[in-house]
Amino acid sequence: MRFPRRSLALGSALVLGGSLLGGLVISPAAHAANEPEALRISGGPTSATDQTPVELDADLYLPEKVPAPAVVLAHGFGGDKSGSADQASQLTEAGFVVLTYSARGFGDSTGLISMNSPDFEVADASRLIDFLAQRTEVTQDSDGDPRVGFAGGSYGGALALLIAGYDDRVDALASDITWNDLESSLFGQSVEGSSQLGVYKNLWTGFFFSVGLRTTDGKVTRCGRFSPEWCAAYTESATTAQVTPAISMLMRESSPISVTDRITAPSLISGGQADSLFPLAQTNANAEQIMEASPQTPVSVLWHGMGHDGGTNEDERLETSITNWFKEYLQEAPESPSVTEPFEVTLTSGEISIQNNQPQPTVVAGANYPGLFGSEQQSIPVLGPPQQILSPAGASPAAISSIPGFGGSLAGNLGSFVTSSFPGQSAFFQSQPLDTATEIIGSSQVEIALSSEVAVTDAIFFLSLQVVGANGRANLPQGLVAPVRIDSLGSTPEVVTVDLPAIALTANAGDSLRLVVSTTDLAYRMPLDERLYTVAMAQSAISVPLVTGLTPVGGEDPTFAWLLLIIPALAIAGVILFVLRPREPKPLHVTESSDSLNESPVVIEDLYKTYKGGYQAVKGVSFEVPRGVVLGLLGPNGAGKTTTMRMMMGLIAPTQGEITLFGHPVFFGSPVLSRVGALVEGAGFLPHLSGRENLHLYWKASGRVGEPYFDEVLEIADLGTAIDRKVKAYSQGMRQRLGIAQAMLGKPDLLVLDEPTNGLDPPQIKSMREVMKSYADTGRTVIVSSHMLSEVEQTCSHVVVMHRGQLIATGKVADLLAGRTGGRLEDVFLDMIGEDLTVGQS
Amino acid sequence: MKTKKALPFRVELIRQLKRKRTLVALILVIALPLIVVTAVKFGPSADDRAGGGGGGFGDGDLDLVGLATSGGWNFALTMMFFASGFLLLILVAMFMGDTVASEASWSTLRYLLIAPVPRRRLLSIKLAVALLLSFVSIVVLVGFSYLVGLFAFGSGNLSTPTAGVFSNSEALWRMTIISVYIFITLLFAAGIAFLLSVLTDVPLGAVGGAVVIVIVSNILDAIDALGDLRQWLPTDYGAAWIGALNREIDWTGMSRGVAYSVVSFIIFITIAYLRFDRKDITS
C-alpha cells in the first residue's frame, strides 16, 4: 500500500512555479545505474537576424534495451533539464530513450526566451528530433524520422503541442497544465461568446515575467533573458493592460490554438483544477480543437487535482499515466498498460484520507470526453434580490482568492481558507440546501444582469461559485474565480452568460450553492476609480454540469482482505493453547479413585522444589497424613513448610515428586482441591467489601456445592458487627479469623492452615485449638503449620518436622516424646536439629 | 467433589462492579461531556461564537471539532474524538491491567485458585468482564454525550466536514461503527495491559506499562521522518474511523486497523494464557 506523499510542491518538472519553490524541492539526483549522457545540441537560429544556432544543454538517458522509442521532456517556465530527471528515470525504466534539455534562455542553454515561438523554441525542438534521428539507440520509423514522443507541463506542455503541430515526426504527446491561447489565459474573460479582451492577470503575468528576468550573472537588466520582442510586448501590456494587434499576433503564434487543427499524434491532454493561470478551460480548448479537427486521433483528457496554484499532489499518478500513454502509442508490444481513459477526473474535495486527514482524491473515468459543460446540465435555483455593489476607489481593499506563485498554500481545497471579501463589494445569490449529493464536473453557467450607475468602458467583475456547508461555512473550490470584463456598461442592464470556473467536486446533501459576484480580486488589474454596479440574476438558476457514466478508477477498492489475517491468528493461537495446555499428571501409583474415601487425605512422595534463581526450598520430602487427625507441620522459618503447602494447594508446581489428596494427584486447579479449605500465608480479601460479602462471594466464586455453613463459620470468626464493615478496616487478627472462617466454608474434608494463630490473642488461640480439635473429631483432617512448638504440642496428635527443606521427623507427638528425658517437644526438636538454631518460644 | 462452574461471569462482574475504580471510571466518562458542554455554553469564549456553526472550539483542517455544537450526534462524536486518545485508553488499560494483578496484590488470587478456579477459566472470565466494562464505558460516553448534546444543542443531524449531513438513522449506524472501531483499536493496549497484569503483581505497573507503550507509539507516529515504517505502529490506525464519516464508508483503513488490533490482541492474550498456565503463584 502506498501512502500519499506529503509534498510541499508539485513535481518541479511540470510546474512553472518550480523555480520559485526550487529552494524547497529536494530533487533526488538521477539515481539510475546508467548516468545520462550530457550533450550540447545545436538548436534553431539565435534570432531573426542572427542565424547562429543556439546551444541546447541536454541529457540523454538510455534504457537497457536499444533501439527504443524516444521521449523528449520539456521543462516548465523557469526550470531546466534537471527538473525532468525523475520522470526521465521512470521513462527509461519503462524502456524509452529519454532526452531532457533546457529550453533556450534557461539553464545552461544559450539564447533568449521567445515563449515557444515557432521560429525559435519550436525550431529547437525540431533540431532535437533531427538529433534523435541520428542516434542508433533510437527506433527509426524511416530515414530521418525517429519514433518520438514529446511531453511537458506548462511552458513545456505548450511546446509539446506546438512541435506536434509543426513537425509531423512527433508520434505521441503528453501536455500538462498549459495554455491554448496565451492571450485569453493572461487576460481572463468568462463571458460566453465575448470577443472583448478580458481582465489582465496582473500578478500571474508579473510573476511569469519576473522568472525570465533572472540573468546568469546576477546583473539586473531591463529584459533579463527575454528576447527584445517579448520584453517589449510585456512592458506594453503590463503598463496598459491592453493588447495591440501586433502583440496579439505574437501571442497567437506561441499558442497551441494556432496548430491544434494540425495535430494528429495521440494526445494526452491534462489540466489542473487548482490552476488560476491556465484553467481547465484552456485544457479543454486544446483537447476539443484536436478532436474536432481530427476525430480519429486518440485524445484523452485528464483533469487532475494539481495546477499552478498547488492543489492535491498527484504527481505519481500523472507520471504513470504519461508513461503508459507513450508505452501504448510508441512501443511495438506494449505490456498492456492501463491507458488513460478518454476522460479522467479527480474529485478532490470529498473523502478524507485516514493517513493525513487531507482530502483523498477520488479518480473517476468515462469513455467519452464530456467537454467543459458536462454531458448534461442541472438547473439549480438560486435566490437573491438585485444588489448594489461597490468597486472601491483605488481598487483597494481587494478580495484574495488565489496568490500566484505560492503553490496553493493559501487556497486549501477543504475550504479552510475562504476568500476574504469586503463588505459592499459582493452580491450573493444562494440556493436551497441540496437534497442529494451532486457531482459538479465542469463549468457551471449563470445568466446575470449587470448595470452601472454611470457609463463605464471597463466594468470588471469576478464571479465565483461557493459551496456552503450545512454549518454555514463557505468553501470556494480551488480558490477559483471567473473574471468578467464588459467594455461598455451603463444604467441599462446588460445580460451576460458567464462560465464559472471549471471544477470537479461533490456537493453534499445539505450543502447550498452560492453565486458570489464581486468587484475586486487582488490577482487582477482593476480600474482605480470607484463605481457602483447593480447585479441581478437574469435567470434565477445556476446551470450545473453533470457527467454521466463515470466509474471510479485506481485507488484501492474497499478491502477487507486484512481482516482475513485474524482467522489464521485465531487458529494458530487456538492450536498453541490446545497443544501447550497443561495436562493432568499421571499419578506415580495408580489408585482406585472410586474408593478415594479410604485414601489418605495427603500423600507426599519425594517432593522437591527449586525456585527460579536456584533456591532449593524443599528437598526430597515424603510423608502421609492419616484421616481424622490434627497434624502439625513444624519447623523454623525457612524450613519449607509454606512451600510444601503451596504445592499441596496447586499454587506452585513441584520440581519433582508427587502429591495426592484423597488419592487424586494435585496439579494447578485440580478438582480435588474443592475438598480442601486453606489459609496459606495470611488471609486475602477484597478490601472494598465487607467480611460477609467476601465470604458470600468467595463461596459463589468457588463453584462448590452443598451447604456453606455460613452461620457456623461466622461464629468461629467471631467478628461481631464488624462482619459488615469493609475488610480494609480490619486488624490483622480480624483478617486472620475471617481467613480461617473462609477456609472452613462448606466444611471441607481437609483443612490446611498456615500459621493460623498469627495475630490472635491468647483467648482466641485457645478457642481456635478447640475448633481444630473438634473439627478433626468429625473425621475430617486438619494440617496446621507453625514455628511455635508449644502450639503444636498442645493442638496436634501428629507431627511432621521439617528443617532446611528436609523432613527430619514424622509420627505421633506421643511417640516422639516417648523415651526422651526432657519430655518436651521443644527439647526433642533441638536435639534433632542441633544447637545452632533458636526456635521461636511461645 | 461435585462442583458447579467456578467463578461464574456474574460473580466476577459483581466483584468488579463493587470496586470504587469502576465507579470513578463511570463518573469520568459522564463528567467529560458535562465539563465540555459547560465550557462551551458558559465559558469565556461563549460570547465570541457567531451564530450558526463552529465556535467554542478551534477548527483544524478536519474541522470535526468545530461542528461539535451542531447537535447531539456531533457532540457525541467530538467527545469520542477527545476521549479516544487518552481517557478511554486509561480506562481500558485500567480494566484490563488491574484485573489479575490486583487479585494478586490482595492475595485473593491464590484463594480463587485453591477454590479451585481453573487457571484458564479464571483468565477467561476476567478477560470477558474487563472487556465488557471497557466497552460499556465507551457506550456510556457516547450515549451520555449524545444526551447532553441533545439537551444543549438540539437534535441536529450528524454534520461532517466533507460528506454533508447524515440523517438520524444513518448517524446512529455511523456512530455505532465508530464506537466499535475505537473499542477495537483499544484492544492493542488492552492486550498488553492484560498480559502485564498476568506477569506482575503490581496493578499500577500493568496499567502504566500499557499506557506508556501506547504513548511512545503515539510519539513515534508523530515523527514524519519515520515514513512508511509508521504503518507498523499500533497507533497508526487510531484515526481510521474518520473513514466512517465519508459518504461511502472507507473501510480500507479500518479493516487494517481492526486486523492489526485484533491480531496483536490475540498474540498478547495467548502469551498471557501460556504464562499463567505455568506460573507459580507465590504472592
Describe the 3D structure.
The complex is a heterodimer of chains A (842) and B (283). Helix content of chain A is 23%, strand content 26%. By secondary structure, chain A is α/β, with parallel strands linked by helices. Chain A folds into three domains: 335 residues, Alpha/Beta hydrolase fold, catalytic domain (Rossmann fold); 174 residues, Sandwich (Jelly Rolls), CATH 2.60.120.260; 241 residues, P-loop containing nucleotide triphosphate hydrolases (Rossmann fold), CATH 3.40.50. In chain A, strands 1-2-4-3-7-8-11-12-13-14-27 form an eleven-stranded mixed sheet, with helices on both faces. In chain A, strands 15, 16, 17, 19, 20, 21, 22, 23, 25 and 26 form a ten-stranded antiparallel sheet that branches. In chain A, a hairpin with a 2-residue loop joins β31 and β32. A two-stranded antiparallel ribbon of chain B has the order 1-2. In chain B, β1 and β2 form a beta hairpin. About 6% of the residues of chain B have low confidence. The longest helix of chain B is centred in the middle third of the chain and has 35 residues. Chain B is 66% helix and 1% strand. The chains are: A alpha/beta (842), B mainly alpha (283). At the A-B interface, α10 and α12 of A face α1, α5 and α10 of B.
**Order of helical and strand elements of chain B:** HHHHHHEEHHHH
**Distance from first to last alpha carbon of chain A:** 76 Å
**Averaging pLDDT over every residue of chain B, what do you get?**
86
Helical content of chain B stands at: 55-70%
Pair with the most extensive interface?
A-B, 84 and 85 residues
- End-to-end distance of chain B, in Å? 27 Å
Return Rg of chain A in Å: 47 Å
Widest sheet, order of strands of chain B: 1-2
Highest CATH level, the class of the largest domain in chain A? Alpha Beta
